[in-house]
Amino acid sequence: MTRHLILMRHAKSDWGSAGQRDHDRPLNARGRASAKALGKWLQARKLLPDEILCSSAKRTQETCSLLGLSTPPTLLKSLYLAEAQEMLAVLQGATGKTVLMIGHNPGIAEFAEDLVAEPPDHERFGDYPTGATLLLRFEIADWAELRSCTAEVEAFVIPRDLI
């Protein structure tokens, strides 16, 4: 059986409010436009999630909302600034066939690198900039079977590629 993972870093956040807690930072105008573009890109590919696992941070929630998807997200504090191993543990408990996971760097970049059998041919994959989105395919029956270096890359895009 095939499972798909959409691994997305939140869009560009706003650093304009001095003293604001990191967890509470919203997206800036560029980030909002990027999230909308990423949503249109996902919808055009017809690879829509039946489960969304999203960090509880404001910027990840706002990114998720602006994608325009009908699936309600599961908000997880454990994904806020999570390292790759924590992201793996969360994903191994997923139940959807196509899962969207929205998180933060550096953990999401490390997680992406750990999952792929062969990295995509894109100059920005290594630093996984804001809005970076990776579409992966796994030949597994259940997310609990997920292992490192087993994903086939279907696509990798950053907002700059779309806007």
Verbal overview:
Helix 1 crosses helix 2 and helix 3 (84-92) packs across helix 4 (107-115). The protein has a single domain (2-12, 25-162), classed as Phosphoglycerate mutase-like (Rossmann fold, 3-Layer(aba) Sandwich), CATH 3.40.50.1240. The chain has a 6-stranded mixed beta sheet with strand order 3-2-4-1-5-6. The mean pLDDT is 95. By secondary structure, the protein is of the alpha/beta class. Helix 2 links the parallel strand 2 (51-55) and strand 3. The longest helix has 17 residues, at 29-45. The protein contains 5 helices and 6 strands, in the order βαβαβαβαββα. InterPro entries: His_Pase_superF_clade-1 (IPR013078), His_PPase_superfam (IPR029033). Substrate binds at residue 59.
Summarize this structure as a short list of keywords or feature phrases.
163 residues; Rossmann fold; 5 helices; alpha/beta; single chain
Biggest sheet: strands, sense, closure? 6 strands, mixed
Instruction: Please name the CATH topology.
Output: Rossmann fold
- State the strand order across the main sheet: 3-2-4-1-5-6
Basic shape: globular
Q: Which class in CATH terms?
A: Alpha Beta
CATH architecture type: 3-Layer(aba) Sandwich
Q: C-alpha Rg, in Å?
A: 14 Å
Low-pLDDT segments, ≥5 res: none
Overall pLDDT level: 95
Total number of beta strands: 6
Q: Supply the helix-strand structural class.
A: alpha/beta
Give the fraction of residues assigned to helices. Answer: 25-40%
